[in-house]
Amino acid sequence: MRLVVVGGGPAGYVAAIRASQLGIKVTLIEAEHLGGECTNYACIPSKALLHAAEVYRKAASAPWLAGSLSFRWGEAVRWKDGVVERLRRGIEFLLKSAGVEVVHGVAKPGPGKSVEVNGRRFEYDYLLLATGSEPVDLKELPRGGRVLGTREVFGLENAPASVAIIGGGAAGVEAASLFSMLGSEVHLVEVMDRLLPGLDADVSRQVERALAGRGVKVYTSSRVVGAGGADGALELRLSTPGGEKRVEVEIAVVAVGRRPRLGPFAALGLELDSRGAVKTDSSMRTSIPWVYAAGDVTGPPYYAHKAYAQAKAAVENMAGLKSAYEPRAVPAVIFSDPEVVSVGLTEEEAAKRGYRPKAARVPLSALGRAVATDSSEGFAKLVYDGESRVVLGVHMVGRGVSELAGEAAALVEFYATVDDLALVVHPHPTLSELFVELAEAALGRPTHVARL
């Protein structure tokens, strides 16, 4: 059996490795760098720079350290580049070890069951499209000059003294966190009535308060209506609930979302949804039986971990295994300051689905670990069904909570009850104790949270 994978990002390279494990002969075609957008331009570069900024923030604010500190952006960017290169080479090594043939170039459909790249033709039994996504542009603020996308901003030679970030979703909030930690003047513009509009409202408000506390100027229910510039600056005109405002900044970053990218493979005529994403069944098969798709090209959410799972399901079905991509919970993690985790249903979503939701809430200040590491800002919320007490959702905001997302997903995925969770011994002192505290709060017997 022969498989051609188009795209070497999270979906593509994971599919290639899993297919090779199953005895399938694989050719992977990548137009740019292995690792795709996530490794090279988004997930990894942003988290590396956020880590560097967090180290600086903690050191600069520590009362037991003497002297002044300065953040060397250029050195941080070079370190980030080294991290990216290391991971990219790691992916290359894994593919080579798995016996995957890697071809660099732009692929296009060939005659019959074939793909053409660099004048070569590759026949296949199955084709997996992992062609990813691309950023959405704003007609009022086209990229170019002082208007950057999230890909370009992490490669700047110097950190901006002032920046306007257009889009209050995950990418925008992360960028606002990064530059505000470094002392830049930050303006964050979101067209909806709150930041992170798809998440729990309490979580969104906590993040907005934290950003505002560091001086970020947040404009919700607002949008860019015009732009101009002179003397090395960029002036934006914003429509806000309080009227039109003018903001002058060094650069603007457009982070208003992404859309699926098919490129030349749009010519296959696959069935698409209203957003241009490839439609698949739970096996990741498209409307053409021998063509599968995985990752961003199948639409939101645009997460690497979603791409991993879809890729494995796709190739396992090609190999004749019964595998399906039907998760109850795909974790959303935002590496802002403070971090955000959202898994499963919010209270509002649960009610719409016919549950009788209840919620338990615990502040991070209830945990010794959070207090000892000066990370007690934030909270966790457990959403559960009032009748069965099955866990429906977990929502957290605070430093370090990203590492708890996997356990939260397991609770939702495997229909854990609040009673089950209360019996699990968690190590002290760790942030993971939040789960026990939440369960006990739901059962009306909290240990480290006072009942008022």
UniProtKB/TrEMBL annotation:
GO terms for cellular component: cytoplasm. Residues 2-311 form the FAD/NAD(P)-binding domain. It catalyses: N(6)-[(R)-dihydrolipoyl]-L-lysyl-[protein] + NAD(+) = N(6)-[(R)-lipoyl]-L-lysyl-[protein] + NADH + H(+). Its cofactor is FAD. Binds 1 FAD per subunit. Keywords: FAD, Flavoprotein, NAD, Oxidoreductase, Pyruvate, Redox-active center. InterPro entries: Class-I_Pyr_Nuc-Dis_Oxidored, FAD/NAD-bd_sf, FAD/NAD-binding_dom, FAD/NAD-linked_Rdtase_dimer_sf, Lipoamide_DH, Pyr_nuc-diS_OxRdtase, Pyr_nucl-diS_OxRdtase_dimer. The active site is a redox-active disulfide bond. Belongs to the class-I pyridine nucleotide-disulfide oxidoreductase family. This is Dihydrolipoyl dehydrogenase. It comes from Pyrobaculum ferrireducens.
